[in-house]
Design brief:
single chain, 478 residues, alpha/beta, 9-stranded mixed β-sheet, 8-stranded parallel barrel, 26% strand, globular, binds ligand LLP
Length: 478
Amino acid sequence: MRAHPAGPRHGQIPADHSSILPVDLNDLDPAVWPRGADRSAGVLTLAGNDVRDLAAEYGTPLFAMDEQDFRSRCQDFADAFGSAADVHYAAKAFLSSHIVKWLAQEGLSLDVCSGGELGLALRAGFPAERIGFHGSNKSQAELEAAVDAGIGAIIVDSFDEIERLVEIAGTGSIGAGRPGGARSGTAIRVMIRVTVGVEAHTHEFIATAHEDQKFGFSLAGGDAMEGIRRVVAGPGLELVGLHSHIGSQIFDPSGFEVSAHRLVRLLEQAIVEYPELADTVTTLDLGGGLGIAYTSTDTPPSVDAMAKSLTEIVERECQASGLVVPRIAVEPGRAIVGPGTVTVYRVGTIKDVHLDGGVVRRYVSVDGGMSDNIRTALYDADYTVVLASRSSAAPAARCRVVGKHCESGDIVVRDCYLPADLAIGDLLAVAATGAYCYAMSSNYNRLPRPPLIAVADGTSRQLLRRETDDDLMHLETW
Ligand code: LLP
């Protein structure tokens, strides 16, 4: 039973809790926690930083990101996919100027989906030619900014966008004279976003998914081929790749197999009509969506295994069609930034609620909530939470971690077990909050956004400071 179709499952008591009841409540499953997470004398440490010290210095709630975890996952992707592929980090999962610099240092490429993300990336010095620009409704101004900067590729999403780009290519002002600018004599490089009719989520995928959605050019309806024709016909545009994105939190590569198969068939068809495309369409972009472990029951494949599958799939499909194997591009967001960040909260209120059947659910209220993590309310997302400021040998109590917002759907961790001696003032840590938590945060109820700090080698520094009362008031016109 749900109070709201998009809301969390209120009042539902899972029949079997064994899957979320750890053997030892103090355990930190390495599949779920940052690579630099540990316990020292019972206290959670992050890259050698005592979580109590972090809370004292920066306050709570607090996002703490393990810098080495982030960097090492960038390296994992670069190593696994090798030199024949491009790994684009999906900025939408989380972006800050420091992240942009780390990505540049690690040699990754970057995907943006708005002028805001593009602007930050460029201002932080990211090489424009390694940026791809997505989005289903890019404005004229956003497209001009991207063309002006000379970004690597614009992933076009509609016939309207193709028209806008043709117009931009035809005007002389944008980027004129700027070396590398797409108006300085070079064509605007575009990919076609293809809606391949595959929808993937964790273990399941549907090969005949509805194309009834806002993104891309429908393959089945023939729009994708028509998009290719218009790009080819569009003066000043160059088709450099085909793109698809089939979903998120994917554990099973089979969905990519179907999507790669369909993209390759489309490429084959396009080359029959326009043989010159064999030379220019050099990239097959399979999008993002590689899953991570939010709880110990999640078992995503390793990056190596996923890379091997995707590479083999594309090679096989191209060989079957007699095509030269193009470069593969992938766009992981969550899999790079998700696992290395934890949110640290302080417990403020504890309330036992007696449910039917003699079941007691302990509501543990923390000092943040749906403004710093909307994913539980929005997607029924599961998270792992531990008592962080000390260890405990107390028995497990059935708990629900909730926030401080004026909304009953304000749930951070719906079903969990915490030590029965949990007390006001204790610190809780929620794992794997690096992706789409800060990025989707809000000021609901006028709460300031938490700071986001980086931890490395026993030190910490702020990447983003906590919002202040002044920040919250600065849009007021009084
Ligand atoms: N590429 C494209 C074209 C995308 O649309 C996305 C995500 C990605 C890459 C990155 O996907 P990832 O590897 O991070 O799963 N707010 C939701 C996720 C929305 C994803 C939208 N597109 C969440 O919190 O789960």
